[in-house]
Amino acid sequence: MALVTYILLSTLIAGLNHQFQPELLGKTATISLIVVIVEIFFLKLGCYLLSISSQSQLLDLIAYSGYKFVGIIVTVVVAEVLNGGKGTGGWVGWLIFFYTYLANSLFLMRSLKYVLLPETSAGVSGGPMQTDSRAKRSQRTKFLFMYSYFVQLFFMWILTRA
């Protein structure tokens, strides 16, 4: 839903600036879908490499990948209104961008930890297995941090520029 809203909003703003071309709908939709597909691919690859498995994991990841569009929509609308049509080019636009980026990243960190950091079973006693579990949890936490902060920054920046 947010993806479609983003596509329509970006073409609406282009139309208000007298820069609308029909191809813009296709270009924006293509870039957005490529970003979502690449994001889900890298998330699934990371889950595979870190041995993370879940029944509803793919649907969860698809749903979580759409949340970035909410922040992008807020950024584009508020920056367009406050910057007088300059988009995210002014300091207000970048301030709003970083606020929505940090809010989205924090939300993803808190939400995806239930998908990517499953709880260990209570029946496991101390020993080498617990150390292995601790090491895997540390790797998964680093992956979650990298995804939530650095990857989201890159993708959100691409989408606000498109």
UniProtKB/TrEMBL annotation:
GO terms for cellular component: COPII-coated ER to Golgi transport vesicle; endoplasmic reticulum membrane; endoplasmic reticulum-Golgi intermediate compartment; Golgi membrane. The chain crosses the membrane at residues 29-51, 58-79, 91-109, 143-160. It is a multi-pass membrane protein. It comes from the Eukaryota. It is found in: Endoplasmic reticulum membrane; Golgi apparatus membrane. Keywords: Endoplasmic reticulum, Golgi apparatus, Membrane, Protein transport, Transmembrane, Transmembrane helix, Transport. GO terms for biological process: endoplasmic reticulum to Golgi vesicle-mediated transport; protein transport. The keyword 4Fe-4S does not apply. Belongs to the YIF1 family. Has a role in transport between endoplasmic reticulum and Golgi. This is Protein YIF1. The gene is hrf1_1.
